[in-house]
Amino acid sequence: MRVWLLSQFHDFHIALLDDVQVDFWSKDDVMVSPSRQESFQRQLNEMDVAWEISIDNVQTVVQEEKESLQGESRSLSRDKFHSYQEMKDYLQELAKLYSNTVSVGSIGSSYEGRDLPILKISSGGDDTRPIILIDAGIHAREWIAPAMALYIIQQLVENPSNADLIANVDWHVIPLLNPDGYEYSRKSSRLWRKTRSKTKRKGCFGVDGNRNFDIHWNGIGGSTDPCSETYVGPRPFSEPETAALRDYVMKQLTKSGSRIKLYLTFHSYASGILYPWGYTWSQAPNANTMKALAQEANLAQKRAGGHDFTVGQTARVFYAAAGGSDDWVASAGRVPLVYTVEMPRGGNWGFDLPPSAINRTVSAFWPAVRVMGRHVQRS
Ligand code: ARG
Ligand code: ZN
C-alpha cells in the first residue's frame, strides 16, 4: 500500500515539478503558494496521500530567522580595533541583511590596490535626498576615528530608535579612507600617519592625506620633504585616496547645488569639533552657523558623559594647515556644513586608546552626531 502511494506520489511529484506555485524542498516536504493551496490539498486527498501542514506561514519563519541573524550581525564588537578586512566584511553583511536601506559601493582604490568602500544608507527618495557624508581614517594611526564611523553605521542601521535620522536624509560613510596606512600601522609601525605611496626619496614613503587636497595646497602647515609626517605630496590629489574622495564629492554636485549638506571627517586625539578654515585665520561665510551647531553638539555629548571638546575655527583654536579635506570640501560652496572631529586621546601617546575605552568613547560622542543629523533633517 505504502509503495503504491509512493509511486503514485512520485508521478504526482513529476507532474508538479513544472508548477511554479509548488516548490519541493525535499521529496516529502513541499512549499505551496497560498493561491495554490486549496487545489493542492484536493489533489492529495484524491490520490490518498496523507499530508499535514508543518509550517503555516513560511514568510513568518523567514522573517524570524532574519531577525535572529540581525542580532548576530551586531557582532562587530567594540572591544577591539578591527582590521580593514573585518570592516569590509561587516559592511557587506549589513548590505545583505538590510538590503532595503543599505548598500556598499566603492569610491576607488588605495595606492596598494585596496578598495575604498562607502556604505550608503537610504530609506528612499531615489538619490534625491540630502546627504550627510562621513569619512574617517585618512590618518592611519588614529584608530578611534574609523571605530567612530563604524559605530555611527551600527547606530543608524541596527538601532531602530535612530530611524528618525534616516527618514528623509541619506548617510554615506567611508569608514576607512587610508586602508594601506591603517594596515601598516597595525602590522609594522603603530604610529604611521600617512598613505603608503612611493616618493622621490628612497626610504621615505607616504603623503599626509590631509595636506594633499587642492585648497591652498603646499601653503602653511605642510612640508615638501617626502620624509616629513606632513608631506604635502608632489601635487594636489597625487594620492589615489584623496583623488577618490574628490571624485565622489564632485559627483554629488547637481544644478541646484550639492546633495551633501554636512561633511564630518574623523581624526584623533585633540577632542575638538573644528570648522573651516584651517588654512587661514579669516572666517568662513557661515562660520556662525557652524559654530552654533558645533556648540549644541558638544553640549549633547557632554551630557552623555563625553569630554569637553574644543569648539572653534581650526586655524584659530588649533594651528593653521592648508590642503585639508575639510577646507576643500567647504570651498567653492561644495558643502555648507563641514567639521573635523578630533576624538579624545587615550593610552600613553594619545593614539593608543586601549580597546577597553572604545565603547565608552564612541558611544559618548554619538549624541553629538544625532544633533547634527537632526539639524540637517530640519533644514
Ligand atoms: N589634526 C588634523 C591635521 O593636522 C586637523 C586638521 C584640521 N583641518 C585643517 N584643514 N587644518 O590634519
Ligand atoms: Zn588626523
Summarize the structure in short:
It is built from 11 helices and 12 strands. It has helices at 2-16, 34-46, 58-73, 84-97, 144-158, 179-187, 240-251, 287-303, 314-317, 325-330, 358-378; strands spanning 22-24, 30-32, 102-109, 115-121, 131-136, 170-174, 253-254, 257-258, 260-268, 272-275, 310-313, 337-343. Strand 7 (253-254) and strand 8 (257-258) form a beta hairpin.
Outline the structure in words:
This protein is of the alpha/beta class and 379 residues long. Helix content is 37%, strand content 16%. It has eleven helices and twelve strands. It has helices spanning 2-16, 34-46, 58-73, 84-97, 144-158, 179-187, 240-251, 287-303, 314-317, 325-330, 358-378, and strands at 22-24, 30-32, 102-109, 115-121, 131-136, 170-174, 253-254, 257-258, 260-268, 272-275, 310-313, 337-343. The strands form three sheets. The protein has an eight-stranded mixed sheet with strand order 3-4-6-5-9-12-10-11. α5 links the parallel β5 and β6 (170-174). α3 runs antiparallel to α4 and α8 (287-303) crosses α11 (358-378). The radius of gyration is 27 Å and the shape is elongated.
Keywords:
single chain, 379 residues, alpha/beta, two-stranded antiparallel ribbon, 11 helices, 12 strands, disordered N terminus, binds arginine, binds zinc ion
Q: Which ranges are low-confidence, i.e. pLDDT below 50, for 5 or more consecutive residues? A: 1-7, 68-73
Distance between the termini: 75 Å
Shape type: elongated
SSE order: HEEHHHEEEHEHHEEEEHEHHEH
List of distinct ligands in this structure: arginine, zinc ion
Instruction: Write down the overall mean pLDDT.
Output: 91
The assigned structural class equals: alpha/beta
What is the overall number of helices?
Answer: 11
In which order are the strands of the major sheet placed?
A: 3-4-6-5-9-12-10-11
Measured as a percent range, the helix fraction is: 25-40%
Radius of gyration: 27 Å
Biggest β-sheet: count, sense, barrel?
Answer: 8 strands, mixed
DSSP strand count: 12
Measured by DSSP, the beta-strand proportion falls in: 15-25%
Subcellular location: Secreted
GO molecular function, one term: zinc ion binding
Protein name: Peptidase M14 domain-containing protein
InterPro entries: CARBOXYPEPT_ZN_1 (IPR057246), M14A-like_propep (IPR036990), M14A_act_pep (IPR003146), Peptidase_M14 (IPR000834)
